[in-house]
Amino acid sequence: MNLNQIISNLEKKHPGEQEYLQAVREVLETIEEVVNENPHFESAGIIDRIVEPDRVLMFKVPWVDDNGKVQVNLGYRVQFNNALGPYKGGLRFHPSVNLSILKFLGFEQIFKNALTTLPMGGGKGGSDFNPKGKSDGEIMRFCQAFMLELWKLIGPETDVPAGDIGVGGKEIGYLYGMYKKLARENTGVLTGKGLGWGGSLIRPEATGFGGVYFTEEMLKMMDDNFEGKTVTVSGFGNVAWGVALKVTELGGKVVTISGPDGYVYDPEGVSGEKIHYLLELRASNQDIVAPYAEEFPEAKFIPGKHPWEVKCDIAMPCATQNELNEEDARNLINNGVKVVAEVSNMGCTPEAIKLFHDNKIPFGPGKAVNAGGVAVSGLEMTQNAMKLGWTKEEVDAKLLQIMRNIHEVSVRYGTEDDGYINYVKGANVAGFLKVANAMIDQGVI
Ligand code: 2IT
Question: Is 156 exposed, middle or buried (0-12, 13-18, 19+ CB in 10 A)?
């Protein structure tokens, strides 16, 4: 496999799609060895086929705002690979959304979903719609207009969307209502639904809980645990909330959260009622964290900065892609970080990851660490298909098992000669082999 040739061909075909090219390069670099060991992958064109989505759907979303003015956004669904099951992955509503970002997310999702061992292919979608400052009525009308196009492309056995940044329980409700009306069926085609109408218990917590379960396994490899650990977290949404809940339960202390306006340092820990306050912050649709420091005076708001300058044992990025760069990584290492676990998708830049690897700091990549979210989405699909629901304890136990299993396969494929575990390689190889073998079995389609 000629990695540079493949990447330069992709650059020509998809100029400027930086995030997508970054995600592809990272995966191809780590699977090069296993591809070279399996010549039948080459003859079946697996790499050429896996790096391009099956199809990309782009559509216009016109809607009317509260002032009666017509607004126009772009809508997308990237159906990347369905070798393992229906396309599965979230919808992101954020002004930064473009094709490159959704292709990177869809590509990552293929391997992440494979790691869960549940029957799900990879996809992603969303819009450049900005939910910040929008009224409930505007969000509902936008979701309905978005679904008016999307519903034709999805279905319980073809493509099952869910939430991502900017799409939570409220948006899933509006999207589902419109889908059900148009499709005249009630098959639970979106996951992350309300707990009273088909949603799975633990789904809201799942990404954060799963991330902490995975990190606990990483700590175990060093005969350690969360007890007494200081943890820095970025973001203040659903994912940061789940992480704060579980870290606190396991005896650790989350000392930061962050938003686009800066970060909050809370030396006493984001615990108890403060964790629930995160949900209020999020629900305000304001996208700022400064009010936390007004509500809880022991905390300090540091405007315009990232939390990675704060001394910690464990760093868990929970916000968005490329949110932790080389300089941040150097700060963390100089401050004695023991473990870095990326809960956001592609949260760390390639330079930051290289620095962690060079310094032998255990680094868990997003597609392994945050797979708990989509794993519980998969369990929601199972429960919907059975028309039965599991208890909180049942779902949580399955999530824990899935995360431990992902850790185990990452160690199996990622352990280097000196004993250092390259989790990026381990997770990519394990996910890739599963998808590639399924593609071989299913022929050229
Ligand atoms: O990045 C992700 O894995 C998600 N946004 C969740 C996807 C899902 O289908 O639950």
Answer: middle
